[in-house]
Amino acid sequence: MEKTMAKKRMTKKERMRQRRRRQRMMFGGGLLLVAVVFTVILLLLGSKGCGTSKAEGDEVEAVPSAEATEAPTAEPTPTPEPVPSVDISDINSRSGILVRLSDGKVVAEKDADAKIYPASMTKIMTAVVGLENLSDQNETITIDRDTYDRLYTEGASLAGFGAGDEVKAIDILYGVMLPSGAECCVGLAQHLFGSEENFVAKMNEKAAELGMDSTHFVTCTGLHDENHYTTVRDLTKLLSYALQNDTFRQIYCTSEYTTSATASAPEGLHFLSTMFKKMDSPEVNGGEIEGGKTGYTGEAGQCLASLAKVDDVEYILVTAGAPGGPSTEPYHIEDAKAVYNRIQAGEQGSAADTAADSQDDQAMTETDGAA
Question: At 99, phi and psi to the nearest 5?
Answer without folding.
Answer: -130, 140
